[in-house]
Amino acid sequence: MHTNVKPNPSRQVLDVIVIGEALTDIVTTPKGTTQHPGGSPANVAYGLARLGVNTGLHTALGTDRRGAAIKTHLAGAGVTLLPGSRPAERTSTATATIAADGAASYAFDITWNIEQPDLAPAPPKVLHTGSIASFLAPGACKVKAILQQLRAECTITYDPNIRHALLGTHAEALRTFEELVHLTDVVKLSDEDAEWLYPGKALEETATHVLGLGAELAVITKGSSGSLMATPSICLRIPAERSDVVDTIGAGDSYMSALILGLLTRGTDGYAPSVLEQLGRTAAMAAAITVSRAGAKPPTGDELSTQLHQ
C-alpha cells in the first residue's frame, strides 16, 4: 500500500469508502411483514460510521420511499453518500418469507449498476466492497475497475457474503471471487462462504489458498466457534465473545466494520500476532454486541470500547 498520493483539497477525504448495494430487507412471517434498510455493504458503512469512522458509501438507490428511508438511515449514523451514486428506477429488495414451521424462502428484486467515480485524487485509507455488488453485472465490472484503479493507493478489504441464488454457476462465481482476491489485501469469509466456494476443503486450507491468490490477511468467521485469522506466516484462532443471543441479523457485517476499524488503528506492527489478536477480539466483540439485541444494530464506538475494557 502506498500513501504518497496528495489528496485534492477540493474533495472530502474519507477514512473508508464502501462500494456496494443498499437495499430494503423485507421479512414476512405469520405475524406480519417488516421492512428495514439492508445490503451487506451498506450495513458495513453504517456500522463503521456508528464506530466513529469517517465513512462514505458509493451505491445505487431508487428515488422512491424505500430509497429515501435508506438515505435517512445512513445519514443518521453519519455515512456520506458519495456524489454520483447512481439513481435507480426503484430500490432493490431482498424478501424472506418465514412459514409457521420456521422454513424460509427467499426472493430478490435487485438490479446493480453504478457510475465509476474517479477516487484516485482523494483515495481513502481503506476501500471495502463485497456481496452482490462484486458479482452481479453490469455493476460488478465497474467495482472491479475501481479496485484496479486504487490497488496501489489504499488497503482494500473484501467480503463476498455469498448469495447463491444470484451468482450463476459455481465456476463463474469462483472465478469472479478469485479475480477480485488478487486485487485485495484483506479477505473475510464466513465458514458457509468458504465451504460453498471450496467444498471439501478444511477452513485452514481455504485460508491458505486465499493467501496464495494475493491477500495479505484471510479471516474466516465461524459464528459461536470464533474465527480464524491467517497470514502467510501466522494462523490464529480467536474465540467468540460470550453473548446472550437475541438474533444474528447483521453480525457478520458488524464484525467486518470492526475489523476495518482495527485495520485503521493498528499502528505500525503490521500483522504481528498481537495485532491479529486485537483485530479478532475487537471484531468478535462488535458481533457479540450486535447479536445481543434485536435487528441489525451495530455498536457505537463508546459501546465497543466499554466492552473491550471490561
Give a description of the structure:
- By secondary structure, the protein is an alpha/beta fold.
- It has one domain (16-308): 3-Layer(aba) Sandwich (UDP-N-acetylmuramoyl-L-alanine:D-glutamate ligase), CATH 3.40.1190.
- It is 35% helix and 23% strand.
- The chain is built from 9 helices and 15 strands.
- The strands form 3 sheets. Strands 6-4-1-10-11-12-13-14-15 form a 9-stranded mixed beta sheet, with helices on both faces. A 4-stranded mixed beta sheet has the order 3-2-8-9.
- Strand 11, helix 4 (170-181) and strand 12 (186-190) form a beta-alpha-beta unit.
- Helix 1 packs across helix 7 (251-265), helix 7 packs antiparallel against helix 8 and helix 8 packs across helix 9 (301-308).
- The longest helix has 19 residues, at 273-291.
- The chain starts with 15 loop residues before the first strand and ends with a helix.
Give me a quick take on this structure:
β8 and β9 form a beta hairpin. Helices cover 35% and strands 23% of the residues.
Low-confidence stretches: 1-10
Main sheet characteristics = 9 strands, mixed
Rg from C-alpha positions?
18 Å
Give the termini distance in whole angstroms. Answer: 34 Å
Task: Report mean pLDDT, rounded to a whole number.
Answer: 91
